[in-house]
């Protein structure tokens, strides 16, 4: 049954005769796809980019926006001597021995060697960064943050695509890859005017993102999180399915980052997210951040942080409990409660705690949220910047009213929790919720940030079959072509997206131009 839409589309093509030709066809208009399209166009190729959504940007525009690189102009200005070799070694520090055994070190080498030139290229097309910022366990400062926010990537990449004449089709659905004699020769797609066969003289580049929003693909390798939503609901693994249909295989499908709890977005978008990415905005920001004391910007930065980041697990270890929209406790807070949050009404939960916990999380070392190397947000920051998340009352019953949950249920949940701890005795690691006033932070939701499983690829980003042979005419980039490399830490996913996209775009264009 799954092949029927594709068969109907093929029949429609035969009936209408709709066919097109490009040098390079790119599937996906996120950061990696636009980087690939630009790189191919820079080589003189005729490029067609197909994006299923009504806008470009993909997961890149939803990210924190950092990119990690060495030997940059920012490091040199700060007197930091750093090399790709050191970056390569430090990436191992993020991984457990179990994960380290799974990694494709050849592709890690591609990333660290080429991401410095990628950062310079991004600056060259108009993006603005500040840094370098520290992020342990990196032993040197090498994280560079985009200004004013991650939407700047989509703005400048799209602008460069259009400047170079890339043919961008939004709302385009790719039904299948076309194969002739074992070589991928194009795609069968509907870009809003009915199905068409689109031939690719050089190659097809798949830049469709990860599969964190695909219940089907998660069920295969990550069944325990098949019910958990993704940060990007459009990351449905379309490209993975297309490439598997022609022999491609997924490396590390069982590895993911998350699920993790994150605070619900504010009802009104923050000023930082609304700032345009124009240089008259970003250059003064860059100058101020690079030359003035960070404390001057702390209120501004924490307002951004409390709009987008996660509560620290240390809150739960200190004694906070989780309740749902019905005021009921639903999980052991120390045993992966993020897996249970999506099963609750509205897929939401609240953190409940009392005065001693609240006092502890007003100052270092107990912070509610963190953006590595930038700032820490404490309870008072949430009180000031997120009144929609911050709830305080003298009694549990009054707190329930402020939260909008049944008071009897919340009172019973707290009472049962306190009673259980009292019966557990000295061996219990946590303390009860006894001393008012009482507090709640939330709602929080639970999301998968990334699935790391991407198609097996060569160091040139050519898709590989299970037997190690390449699929001619087919490249995969970004999360769709992660190939087994593991991108822990901030700034590596965007670095890989842009670097792999640029390289594959160049290689695909060279194939097309050789066939002219």
Give a description of the structure.
- By secondary structure, the protein is α+β, with helices and mostly antiparallel strands.
- It contains 18 helices and 23 strands.
- It folds into 2 domains: 322 residues, FAD/NAD(P)-binding domain, CATH 3.50.50.60; 154 residues, Succinate dehydrogenase/fumarate reductase flavoprotein, catalytic domain (Flavocytochrome C3, Chain A, domain 1, Alpha-Beta Complex).
- The two termini are 39 Å apart.
- The protein is 36% helix and 22% strand.
Please report the number of helical segments.
18
Could you estimate the helical fraction of the residues in percent? 25-40%
Supply Rg.
25 Å
CATH homology-level superfamily of the largest domain:
FAD/NAD(P)-binding domain
The parts where pLDDT drops under 50 for at least 5 residues are: none
User: Mean of the pLDDT scores?
Assistant: 91
Give the tally of structural domains.
Answer: 2
Keywords:
FAD/NAD(P)-binding domain, 23 strands, 36% helix, six-stranded mixed sheet, Flavocytochrome C3, Chain A, domain 1, 516 residues, eight-stranded mixed sheet
Give the SSE map.
Blueprint: H1 4-16, E1 19-27, H2 31-42, E2 47-51, E3 66-68, H3 73-77, H4 84-91, H5 97-100, H6 105-124, E4 128-133, E5 143-147, H7 151-163, E6 167-170, E7 173-180, E8 183-190, E9 195-206, H8 215-221, E10 229-230, H9 238-244, E11 250-251, E12 256-257, E13 260-263, H10 271-274, H11 279-291, H12 298-308, H13 314-318, E14 321-323, E15 349-353, H14 355-360, E16 369-371, E17 375-377, H15 379-385, E18 390-393, H16 396-403, H17 407-424, E19 438-448, E20 450-451, E21 454-455, E22 462-464, E23 470-476, H18 492-515
Parallel strand pairs: 1-2, 1-9, 2-6, 9-23, 10-19
Antiparallel strand pairs: 3-5, 4-5, 7-8, 8-9, 11-21, 12-20, 13-19, 14-15, 15-19, 16-17, 18-19, 22-23
Helix pairs in contact: 2-7, 2-18, 4-6, 6-18, 16-17
């Amino acid at each position: 049954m799954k092949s029927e839409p594709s068969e109907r589309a093929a029949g429609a093509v035969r009936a209408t005769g709709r066919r097109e030709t490009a040098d390079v066809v790119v599937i996906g208009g996120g950061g990696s796809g636009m980087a690939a399209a630009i790189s191919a166009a820079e080589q003189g190729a005729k490029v067609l980019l197909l994006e299923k959504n009504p806008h470009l940007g993909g997961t890149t525009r939803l990210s924190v926006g950092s990119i990690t690189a060495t030997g940059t102009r920012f490091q040199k200005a700060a007197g930091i001597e750093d090399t790709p070799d050191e970056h390569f070694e430090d990436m191992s520090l993020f991984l457990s021995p179990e994960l380290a055994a799974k990694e494709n070190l050849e592709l890690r080498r591609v990333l660290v060697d080429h991401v410095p030139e990628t950062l310079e290229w991004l600056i060259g097309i108009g993006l603005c960064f500040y840094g370098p910022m520290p992020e342990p366990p990196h032993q040197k400062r090498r994280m560079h943050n985009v200004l004013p926010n991650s939407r700047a990537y989509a703005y400048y990449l799209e602008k460069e695509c259009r400047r170079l004449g890339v043919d961008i089709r939004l709302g385009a659905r790719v039904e299948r890859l076309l194969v002739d004699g074992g070589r991928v020769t194009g795609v069968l797609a509907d870009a809003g005017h009915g199905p068409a066969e689109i031939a690719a003289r050089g190659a097809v580049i798949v830049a469709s993102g990860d599969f964190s929003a695909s219940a089907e693909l998660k069920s295969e390798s990550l069944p325990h999180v098949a019910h958990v939503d993704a940060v990007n609901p459009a990351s449905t693994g379309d490209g993975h399915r297309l490439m598997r249909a022609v022999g491609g295989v997924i490396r590390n499908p069982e590895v993911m980052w998350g699920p993790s709890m994150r605070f619900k977005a504010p009802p009104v978008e923050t000023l930082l997210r609304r700032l345009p990415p124009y240089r008259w905005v970003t250059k003064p920001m860059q100058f101020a951040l690079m030359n003035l004391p960070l404390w001057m910007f702390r209120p501004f930065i924490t307002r951004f942080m409390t709009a987008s980041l996660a509560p620290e697990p240390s809150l739960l270890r200190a004694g906070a409990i989780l309740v749902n929209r019905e005021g009921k406790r639903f999980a052991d807070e120390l045993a992966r409660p993020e897996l249970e949050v999506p099963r609750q009404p509205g897929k939401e939960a609240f953190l409940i705690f009392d005065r001693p916990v609240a006092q502890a999380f007003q100052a270092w070392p107990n912070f509610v949220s963190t953006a590595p190397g930038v700032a820490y947000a404490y309870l008072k920051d949430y009180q000031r910047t997120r009144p929609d998340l911050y709830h305080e009352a003298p009694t549990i019953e009054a707190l329930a009213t402020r939260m909008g949950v049944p008071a009897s249920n919340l009172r019973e949940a707290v009472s049962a929790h306190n009673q259980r701890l009292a019966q557990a005795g000295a061996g219990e690691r946590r303390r009860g919720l006894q001393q008012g006033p009482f507090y709640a932070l939330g709602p929080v939701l639970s999301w998968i940030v990334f699935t790391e499983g991407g198609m097996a690829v060569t160091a040139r980003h050519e898709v590989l079959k299970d037997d190690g042979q390449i699929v001619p005419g087919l490249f995969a980039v970004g999360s769709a072509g992660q190939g087994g490399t593991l991108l822990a830490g901030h700034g590596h996913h965007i670095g890989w997206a842009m670097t792999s996209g640029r390289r594959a775009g160049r290689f695909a264009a060279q194939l097309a131009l050789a066939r002219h």
